[in-house]
Amino acid sequence: MAEKKVPEVKLRKPVRALVMLPRAGKISVNARKIYNVILHTSADQIVEYETEHGTQMPKGHYFESRLVDLLLPIQAGQSDLRASAKEFLNEMANIRIDWEAPDHREEGEVFEDEDDWVNLGLLSEVRFKKSKPSNKNSEVIVKWELPPGIFNQLRSPQDYKYAQISLYQLTKLSTYESVALYEICARYRTNPNGVTCKQEPIWWTQALSSKVPEVDPSTGLPKWREWRKFKGEKVQKAVQEICENTDLDIQMIEKGGLVQFTVMRKAAEFSALPNKLNPEIADKALALGLRLTDISTLIRNGQSEMALKEAFVRMGQQDPTKIDRKLAYLNKILEEVNPFFAAGGLPKKAPVQQELLPKTNTPSGVVPQVAMTYKDERRAEIRKEFSELVLEEQQPYAYLAFADLKNKNMANPNLSMKIESKAWESAPILFAKMVDIYAVQTYGDDWAVEKDD
Predict the structure, then answer these.
(1) Which of 56, 133, 317, 393 is 20 to 30 A from 98, comparing alpha carbons?
(2) CA separation for the pair 108, 241 (Å, rounded)
(3) How far apart are CA 374 and CA 380, in angstroms?
(4) Of 7, 127, 74, 3, whose CA–CA distance to 417 is shortest?
């Protein structure tokens, strides 16, 4: 059987927000990528709010997320971005830009909220706080407010035009020009003519630039790079990077003093997402109170799944609620078992640190056989029953599960992406919560209690 492919999750980005013409300040490539994650997170939180309250989210609402969750979708192939993340977020609040749809000038499209979109920052406000102020190891929480024009379009998506932007594809691009050009071309990926809008070269120079150049003293206007030079230095390299690394093939066309791009989707447009966790590994990690992002990082750094499974067994031999620093505890066990797996397998009696490992009568290295409880058997039955529902019937449980996980600080943008793409079965923590909610709503609070005959 062919391996099931995971669909790429796409941000429904307002067409009006695709082209950002800088007027003051600078925005880096990572800031632009993070901003797309912010828009995706904001859209999901709007849906959650309106589902929970049954009314539209009010203007001036503050969105929030853990800083690490905003960085996770753009982290691929890069070093830790947390040290410079505040700098990126401050860029968004300080830069001044003019917003424009790619085909705005060409088609003469008129926006009712024109004045709300003139010369704005990407964020109206951004704040940082600690999840636990008294704890120096607490996580950084980011809160932000969106400009009214963007907020209105995210809140009422049915009234506006959107482009589907793949957050995963953007991780493959390294320059601002590549990201900006990819977003514009993605707007036309389904265009029957297979081409973008036609614009003058100066428009493309501004649309693909991350900052405003110095003012020409003779004219008093910004001294934009000559198109011939900008094309050779930036645009051609961006075209090459997009064609080599993403799901699009594009080509520049210059004719009659105007510039446009052909856009063609590659055959293998929907590729599997990277670093997908083994469901068995994910389930065991969650049962021990470990975070999936930490386990994913271990695997990305070369940690074997076999050693993780052995470490999970040893952790499970004592009450995990009594372990204060679970990740540190796991790493200590991995230090003990990794050398033996590297040598060809774990011996029957691996040396372990007695003060760290739980006391047990089970010999080290021997995986204990665990009998299924009635609750385990019942959950398996209900899980099978729930899996047979169509996706539209499962979706309300996805929203309820996400809201519950968010209240427990266990949610992140990856989970909201799974909900949008209806791929929640590939998110063990989310799907398990959905099954439990379904069980309670269908069979009552005592669904896992064995009844007497």
Answers:
(1) 56
(2) 31
(3) 10
(4) 7
Task: Determine the 3-state secondary structure of 450 from DSSP.
Answer: coil
State the Cα–Cα distance between residues 216 and 50, nearest whole angstrom.
50
Q: 346 is written with which tokens? A: 């774990």
φ, ψ of residue 346 to 5 degrees: the values are: -80, 125
**CA torsion angle 411 417 419 423 (round to 10):** -110
Model pTM score: 0.59
What are the φ and ψ backbone dihedral angles of 135, each rounded to 5 degrees?
-105, 120
Q: How far apart (Å, rounded) are the C-alpha atoms in residues 215 and 349?
A: 73
What phi, psi does 255 have (nearest 5°)?
A: -155, 130
Tokens at residue 375, please?
């609750």
Residue 268, token pair as written in the block: 């293998």
User: In this structure, are residues 123 and 92 in contact, taking their beta carbons and an 8 Å threshold?
Assistant: yes
Looking at the DSSP bridge assignments, the partners of residue 208 are none
b/e map 252-273, b = 16+ CB within 10 Å: beeeeeebbbbbeeeeeeeeeb
- Distance from CA of residue 95 to its chain's centroid? 24
Return the closest-CA partner of residue 275 out of 307, 301, 245: 301
- Report which residue type is found at 178: S
For residue 177, pLDDT over 90 is answered with yes
Residues sharing a CB contact under 8 Å with residue 230, sequence separation 6 or more, in sequence order: 205, 208, 224
d(CA 420, CA 399): 10
73-82, 141-150, 315-324, 338-347: which has the highest mean pLDDT? 141-150
Q: Which has the minimum average pLDDT: 73-82, 136-145, 260-269, 349-358?
A: 349-358
- DSSP letters, 344-401, are TS--SS----TTTSPP-SSPTTPPPP-PPPHHHHHHHHHHHHHHTS-HHHHHHHHHHH
Domain regions of the chain by residue span: 10-265, 279-342, 374-443
Consecutive H or E run containing 35: helix 29-53
Contact 181, 188 (CB under 8 A): no
Looking at residue 412, what is its pLDDT? Answer: 66
Place of tokens 């067409």: 15
For 63, the 3-state DSSP assignment is strand
Q: What is the helix (H) or strand (E) element at residue 24, kind and residue range?
A: strand 19-24
The Cα–Cα gap between 280 and 290 comes to 14
**Residue 331 confidence (pLDDT):** 81
